[in-house]
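Q: May I have one protein plus its fold?
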Amino acid sequence: MLSDELTQLIRDDEMSLLTEFYRDKLDGVLSCYDRIVITGTLPQLCYAQGMTGYLYQHGIRIFDYARFAEPFREQLRHNAERIAKENNIKIEHIRKKKTKKEKIVQKVLRRRGTAPGLVHIISAMESCDSYQPWHDKQSGKTYLKPRSGQCLHYYFYFIDEELGLCYVRVPTWCPFRLQIYFNGHHWLASKLTEQGVKFSMLDNAFEFIEDYQKAQNIVDAFSVEELHKKLDHFAQQYCPVHTHFNQVYHWSVMQAEFATDIIFKQQADLQEIYDHLFRTAIHTVKPDNLATFLGGKQLTNYQGEVGNRYNVRIEGARIKHTMGEVAIKMYDKFKKILRIETTVNNLTFFRHYRTVEHRDGTTSKKYAAMKKNIYSLVPLQKLLLASNRRYLEFISAFDDHSSGHQNLRRVSQAVEKSNRKYRGFNFFENEDLKLLLAIARGEFNISGFKNRDLRKFLPTKTPAQISRLIKRLRMHGLIRKAKNAYKYYLTKLGKKVIATALKIKELIIVPKLA
């Protein structure tokens, strides 16, 4: 979460974005959740110790666990067969693991249409959570311990009147961990239809909306409470055995994608700039930049996997930057929509300011890891939108040629103040490039930097020399001082210069030296 101080600095000194520069060529801009995958767990049964306690509580022998679970499997099979018969649908069993379920469903949809209701039921043998009875000879205790197994799963694909195309994945073996998918763009489409707003879609993206602002207002008003009711209803309909345990499902976010779509009027207008953006991003986006986009100082110490990948698909050319369980993607969807999308597979990757409950029952407000429950979708949306915005700001610097000559002169030529000269910056001089790359670090862009921060990355400089460098950066308008603190942030010009320095290093200096 950005501080009020930094938020004000950004407002005062925003970059000229692609969305502003190409305004006349755009149909509109929309930011919306895309793919969302929810998992449902029964609180007492979702871990081995809890299930062990349940069996003891109900007088069931631990080694009779399989006999205890068998009737529920049969009940779920009968339930799936009943639903299929009522909807005149034949359950399709898949034996090959590589079979794409989405392709099967799309084929059915082309024949069936998009009216609300059940679309298809697919069954498959897949891995599932399970428990194994165990007797510890040393302690004399008998209990369940976790293990992985395989069981029959049912995929119920249906079109919900509000959420659009969804599926519910139901395992037929205890502890019945559910998985539910829906798409935020399809949800928005149903809301636009309900309010009489005209639109057209390509797959899971809008290529035209009659009123983009109204659409964005609908997205911003997304109700988690309504979603919660939907999920409970799906569980009751497709996994009714959970009522036997007198428990309700706890819903968590397994995966969430949030997309910012920049919709061009003509394909040619996007293709004119996309190749340049795509190839420059491949060379210039580094781990520190990812930390900046994702919005946290703590991410700069991240030790997990970080990397870039790119490929060309039917939907368009895509580059994907990964940092562990979070990724930022950019692609030209159907060569008409510039999509920037942040995906998270573990919400605890992010930290935000929230109420924290302590073991003694007290609460306090502090920065803490985000909870995985579905009510985190609201604060998560703000974080992912900010991530997309920072990435857009970064790539906008690649293509922003406005006032280029003037800015070059301003940065490279000496400036004079109070009878003292401050020399300009030379992108090809090693010391200058090292300084510019140092202040480009992710944590500095988010939290600012002080003299002592720069000394870590410029170890040969004394504090006095660092002070003179900071003064020189300020005199050229590359950084600005925060109010009431010896802390500095990049300016609009500074961000452009940093992007240029990165491009020079990665596209010119490194290849030439290689």
About this structure: The longest strand covers residues 117-135. The mean pLDDT is 86. DSSP finds 17 helices and 19 strands in the chain.
